[in-house]
Amino acid sequence: MKRISRDQAQKFAFDWRDEPLLQVDCGDLIEIETWDAGSGFFKSPDDKAIPKNRPGFDKHPPLANPIGGPVYINGAEPGDMLTIKIEDILVGDYSWVAIGPNRGPLGQSTRWPKVSEKYTTKIFKHIPGPSGTMRDGTMQFSGDISWPITPFIGTIGVAPEREVCTSIDGQGAWGGNLDIRDVAVGNSIHLPVFHKGALFYLGDVHASQGDTEYTGTAAETCATVRVKFQLTKRSRLPTMRIEKNDSIIAIHTARPLENAVNNSTQHLMEWLVDEYAFSQEDAYCLVSTCPYFRINIYQMLVSTGMNFVAGAEIPKEYLG
């Protein structure tokens, strides 16, 4: 199996000029070992998110959120659709979250002084499950609070069309730092291709996260990820799409939030018309009447300049 080791997975931008680390055919199973978003800095509660103490934080933008890649997919050309099937995510033995002054929406809050007056790092132990691995393990939030590890890939995408976008704040139809909890094992991610070979990257795995990633970090962890690729020729997408076993999701990133919601809904309607034989009228009415239509607010980091990430989702059983 072809793989990118953790030592190699230290890029900080989706850059079409990067030399590919792997060249693969569609159907090949590959493995990428990823760092956590802090590049291994956070190991104990004593490791605080003080910028001057963090390697790479003297750069602009900071060298955070490392990704592995690019992977060159043979046969991929601009105008194609790349499908990434997520086969496995095996997280490390702990994860972390960090808060403090000038971090997140409450980093300067007077109403919530305890969360902004000092830096706090919480380390969460991961406990293996019945399989003996973290695939069915639990995350220990505190002595009496725990939940199943629900890993996903936070940063994923291909090199964008005309520019270099950073792994910490780059976002677009091509992917980026999106923190979508549905970029998970068993799901397929559809992306437009802008360069020959697609030039695919991933990183920033989370052991779990609630909607919005409100503090700006979630359960950040290192991981080993396995994926496969497929190509659909001459099928340019307007935005990222996600296909689950029982539903489809159209993604859009924008500010303000209502623009992300509005555009993701229209992208979903376009999907229904183009691939499921809905009329425009029926697609429009479905998203307003189906009680199982959902808007997922995956990422909403109000204290940064990043776009908000919304996903419009509909179960497949209502697609005819």
**Shape annotation:** globular
Architecture (CATH level 2) name of the largest domain: Sandwich
Strand count: 21
Strand count, sense and closure of the main sheet?
9 strands, mixed
- How many structural domains? 2
Strand portion, in percent?
35-45%
Radius of gyration: 19 Å
Q: What's the CATH H-level homologous superfamily of the largest domain?
A: Acetamidase/Formamidase-like domains
Low-confidence stretches: none
CATH level-1 class of the largest domain: Mainly Beta
Across the major sheet, the strand order is 1-4-17-6-15-18-19-21-20
Provide the descriptors you would attach to this structure in a database record.
Endonuclease I-creI; single chain; Jelly Rolls; globular; 9% helix; mainly beta; 21 strands; nine-stranded mixed β-sheet; 2 domains; six-stranded mixed β-sheet; 320 residues
Structural write-up:
By secondary structure, the protein is mainly beta. The protein folds into two domains: 2-234, Acetamidase/Formamidase-like domains (Jelly Rolls, Sandwich); 244-320, Endonuclease I-creI (Roll), CATH 3.10.28.20. It has helices at residues 257-276, 280-289; strands at 2-4, 13-14, 22-24, 30-34, 67-73, 81-91, 94-99, 120-127, 138-140, 146-148, 152-158, 165-166, 171-172, 175-177, 188-192, 200-206, 223-232, 241-243, 247-254, 294-299, 308-315. The strands form four sheets. It has a nine-stranded mixed sheet with strand order 1-4-17-6-15-18-19-21-20. A six-stranded mixed sheet has the order 3-5-16-11-14-13, with no helix packed on it. Helix 1 (257-276) crosses helix 2. The longest helix is centred in the C-terminal third of the chain and has 20 residues, at 257-276. It is globular and about 55 Å long. The mean pLDDT is 95.
